[in-house]
């Protein structure tokens, strides 16, 4: 029987891809750490060699971002990730504690379903392929339909690199007929052990409700606080560099700038000097109606577009020199469109009465959208850093660095990653920058250290119906401690 229906064909393809991936993963499970590392190195080298070609294809397919910046992301996702994970122990025995007689063995989860977004299509595919294989797994990609061509080409590059390293190229594969049914079947397939979901909120929710263990990430909406001790020109440079990198398609990029009210004139002047265009009330209202759809979600037409393109689409006339659009915002939530995530060169601008008020405003913004994701600040005062780190509902807090690059680990010591966990508060299974160690199970081998009789000896005296608890020494009265020590000394002297 020959199938012609697109949905049926896509579902049949999923079954075949998962079956081939399972076989390839079983072969990978027999390889040593050195053999696995050789495969990952081959993928990393291939990603760097093809970084510009794949970046150009991604830009052509989606219209998002800037080609030169996408080259950087492809190199980061290939070589940057590899350099960070190359020495990680992920195969076989991970730990051994001779004193506790405990061993920890790495166990691959098996076949992973990888959802690939249109915002960072080629770099995400390279990144997920590396961390999946590094942890001993195979991965099947479900590509965003608008980026199918560039993702498919990236997978072709990866598969060739795997073959050149002497492994089964079916360790990485991609659906060629992307449909909702195909993605749903992939996530629910009995041989898929885990879902690595990067994409829109609806897709991430679908991954978590599929019944298959999933690591997903929520939206970013990170505020950036310029505190009064900051180097203002440098802070503004970092923020604008970050927000304009690949036209704001990285979810960790700044979505709003906030400062103490008395700092507003100096900061606005510096932002304007560096290419920020502050909208007047009429322009602010016009763009505000354009950046969100009727249902309150982000208008995809602003994603990854240049300032000039967004201005033209919204009917605005802005200077050709404008690098980022800035709108004053005085509230959060419905009716305040600039308080939402904006994956384009658009920033909200808030002010607070002092750092405590600023902290409250930033927390409110994140609780509305982006909780558990990212927050950044620019300051020379470590006490302010401590204050915010104890209160802001985020998983990663960047200090004195471009948030987009800091959040993914390009300009900070975080795990280089294009999948940023949001923790329990953000509905994610992890608060980490996802890496290989998130994609394996740990098998604990524990040796016996005592017998039941030994355990019984440690049971307290319960003869009075209430079990006696010996107080900790630090909880005892000093006089009582002295009396106990005196009795012990006297008893030892009697024995002697």
Automatic annotation (TrEMBL):
Gene3D superfamilies: Aldehyde Dehydrogenase, Chain A, domain 1, Aldehyde Dehydrogenase, Chain A, domain 2. InterPro entries: Acetaldehyde_DH_acetylating, Ald_DH/histidinol_DH, Ald_DH_C, Ald_DH_N, Aldehyde_DH_dom. It holds the Pfam family Aldedh. The keyword NADP does not apply. Signal peptide: none annotated. Keywords: Oxidoreductase. One of its GO terms (molecular function) is oxidoreductase activity, acting on the aldehyde or oxo group of donors, NAD or NADP as acceptor. SUPFAM superfamilies: ALDH-like. Residues 11-273 form the Aldehyde dehydrogenase domain. PANTHER family: ALDEHYDE DEHYDROGENASE-RELATED. This is Acetaldehyde dehydrogenase (Acetylating). The lineage of its organism: Bacteria, Bacillati, Bacillota, Clostridia, Eubacteriales.
């Amino acid at each position: 029987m020959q199938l012609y229906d697109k949905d049926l064909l896509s579902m049949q393809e999923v079954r075949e891809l998962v079956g081939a991936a399972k076989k390839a993963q079983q072969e990978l499970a027999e390889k040593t750490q050195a053999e696995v590392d050789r495969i990952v190195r081959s993928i990393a080298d291939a990603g760097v060699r093809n970084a510009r070609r794949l970046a150009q294809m991604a830009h052509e397919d989606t219209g998002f971002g800037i080609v030169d910046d996408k080259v950087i992301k492809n190199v980061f996702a290939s070589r940057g990730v590899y350099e960070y994970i190359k020495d990680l122990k992920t195969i076989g025995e991970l730990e051994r504690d001779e004193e506790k007689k405990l061993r920890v063995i790495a166990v691959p989860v098996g076949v992973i379903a990888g959802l690939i977004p249109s915002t960072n299509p080629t770099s995400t595919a390279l990144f997920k392929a590396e961390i999946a294989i590094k942890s001993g797994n195979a991965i099947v990609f479900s590509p965003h339909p608008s980026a199918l061509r560039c993702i498919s080409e990236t997978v072709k590059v990866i598969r060739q690199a795997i073959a050149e390293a002497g492994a089964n190229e079916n360790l990485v594969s991609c659906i060629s007929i992307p449909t909702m049914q195909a993605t749903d079947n992939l996530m629910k397939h009995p041989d898929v052990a885990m879902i690595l979901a990067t994409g829109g909120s609806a897709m991430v929710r679908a991954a978590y409700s599929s019944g298959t263990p999933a690591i997903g990430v929520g939206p970013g909406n990170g505020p950036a606080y310029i505190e009064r001790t900051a180097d203002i020109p440098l802070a503004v440079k970092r923020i604008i560099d970050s927000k304009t990198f690949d036209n704001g398609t990285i979810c960790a990029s700044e979505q709003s700038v906030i400062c103490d009210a008395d700092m507003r004139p100096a900061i606005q002047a510096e932002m304007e000097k560096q290419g920020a265009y502050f909208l007047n009330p009429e322009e602010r209202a016009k763009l505000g109606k354009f950046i969100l759809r009727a249902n309150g979600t982000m208008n995809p037409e602003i994603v990854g577009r240049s300032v000039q393109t967004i201005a033209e689409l919204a009917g605005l006339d802005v200077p050709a020199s404008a690098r980022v659009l800035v709108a004053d915002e005085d509230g959060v939530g419905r009716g305040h469109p600039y308080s939402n995530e904006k994956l384009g060169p658009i920033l909200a601008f808030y002010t607070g009465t002092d750092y405590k008020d600023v902290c409250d405003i930033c927390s409110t913004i994140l609780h509305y959208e982006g909780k558990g994701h990212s927050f950044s600040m620019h300051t020379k005062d470590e006490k302010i850093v401590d204050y915010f780190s104890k209160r802001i509902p985020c998983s990663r807090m960047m200090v004195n660095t471009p948030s987009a690059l800091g959040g993914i680990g390009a300009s900070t010591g975080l795990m280089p990653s294009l999948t940023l966990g949001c923790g329990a508060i953000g509905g994610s299974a992890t608060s980490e920058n996802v890496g290989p160690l998130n994609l394996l199970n740990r098998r604990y081998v524990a040796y016996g250290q005592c017998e039941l009789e030994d355990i019984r000896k440690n049971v307290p005296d319960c003869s009075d119906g209430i079990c006696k608890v010996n107080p900790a020494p630090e909880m005892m009265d000093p006089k009582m401690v002295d009396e106990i020590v005196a009795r012990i000394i006297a008893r030892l002297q009697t024995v002697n």
